[in-house]
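Problem statement: downstream parser choked on a complex file, so we are re-checking the raw output for the magnesium ion run. The parser issue turned out to be on our end (a line-ending mismatch), but while we're here, posting the original submission so the record is complete.
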Amino acid sequence: MPTFDNRFLRDLPGDPDTTNQLRQVYGACWSRVMPTSVSAPKLLAYSSEMLQALGLSDEDINSPAWVNALGGNGLIPGMEPYAMCYGGHQFGNWAGQLGDGRAISLGEVVNSQGQRWELQLKGAGVTPYSRMADGRAVLRSSVREFLCSEAMHHLGIPTTRALSLVQTGDVVIRDMFYNGNPQAEKGAIVCRVSPSFIRFGNFEIFAMRQDKQTLKTLVDFTINRDFPELADFPEDERLAEWFAIVCVRTARLVAHWMRVGFVHGVMNTDNMSILGLTIDYGPYGWVDNFDPGWTPNTTDAAGRRYCFGRQPEIARWNLERLAQALYALKPEREIYDEGLMLFDQAYNKEWGAVLAAKFGFSQWRDEYEPLFTEVFDLMTQAEIDMTEFFRKLALVEATQPDLGILQSASYSDALWETFKPRFSDWLKQYSQATVADGRDPIARKDAMNRVNPRYVLRNYLAQQAIDLADAGDNSLIEELLEVLRHPYDEQLGKERFAALRPDWAKHKAGCSMLSCSS
Ligand SMILES: Nc1ncnc2c1ncn2[C@@H]1O[C@H](COP(=O)(O)OP(=O)(O)OP(=O)(O)O)[C@@H](O)[C@H]1O
Ligand SMILES: [Mg+2]
């Protein structure tokens, strides 16, 4: 049995009210709340890596006690469920108190290596923070969260993890596109796992309410528990150093997203992890044809605030909101300006390194910049699949460049023909630069294939897994989980999972359009 050590609950002020009623919660970081029980919890899938990290066996997780706990029907000794109080800026505006409206933390497991893993159910019923909603999650969004959490981890991208996917046996009513067509869908619960689920919004809420004391307590707690590297830092420099670390981690996170073509979709400050992890797999998506303006989130279709190309800028905007919240504790502008400058520097450095690596160069050189600008413009206009393009680019022999190799990344023969002359010029210049870089061709190809994934959770693949799961067949969830364990390796017989988005998926709900309704 895992050992629980529930520090968030123990060390931080809590809500004295233990009823499960909607309310504004003041001066407290959490409210106790029990998951609402479900009719028939059934374990659909789980991550063996997380199982191991938590010191659990296959037998444990399949036992009635664990299946019940992961479905919200019971507790394992040591679990003390609670919902967190947080606020957030949504689509650029302060939204007030939000909080875990359907997430319920069960407690913090400390494993045999001393690692701390908080377990949190998503979709486990209403909490004091549920506002107008039902506290539940549907199967489609839970499959997406479960698979993508683990896929991101295997891509080497900081993320919250997923232990399990449980079907509840109950239905959930959702109007998927908010167009007056509510449907009954299957309910599900993901058990997420993370060293910490603290978000920017956890700090913002206390700053906005001018509750400096709780803000200070939460900051000290976060630094103590989640940033042990700051333990020996002089007291009066800790806040500045901590903010700087958060800025740099956030910059690295977003550079990774841009590297693999991941679009978060709802980068509200309540969806920004203080640890720089990807959190909240809602209407996220993977770029198929390269397009900086693309967003999977239909709710954001008009403004495109959270589109692919704007993610770095939005991350910085969110850090500014965090700075604003921390200002109350240390009203010295310079420390926040310094942190934000470090964000810019870290992002530029990371992104430069990412670009050089994606294109197979041994290092960043300023002279490459026009090459990158030109090809991204071409990829956008000619509708070129991002993932396929970079895998095929690795096959181009710089001494004998063959444009034909890249054609498999094209979505449109007509556009390919139109842009062929420009692509051809580009490839010549790129090949010359590659030759000049002087890298060994095999080393170049291997290095490219370590940063350019072959397999990502393409939107249509996730949708196929969902459609099957909805019909009671979990085989594709299992198969995707397995393929996405080794996203950079060619896997014999698994080519279909690297295939470009088929035509049928171009405008299908769930494949190219997702809403926040989940
Ligand atoms: N079905 C629901 N019932 C209750 N609250 C909800 C529901 N869906 C979203 N919320 C709440 O609305 C706010 C914003 O929602 P958002 O879509 O960012 O989060 P989420 O998908 O529920 O979860 P998380 O950020 O924990 O992954 C959060 O406070 C969230 O808890
Ligand atoms: Mg959220």
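For whoever reads this later: Residues 41 and 56 are 19 Å apart (CA to CA).
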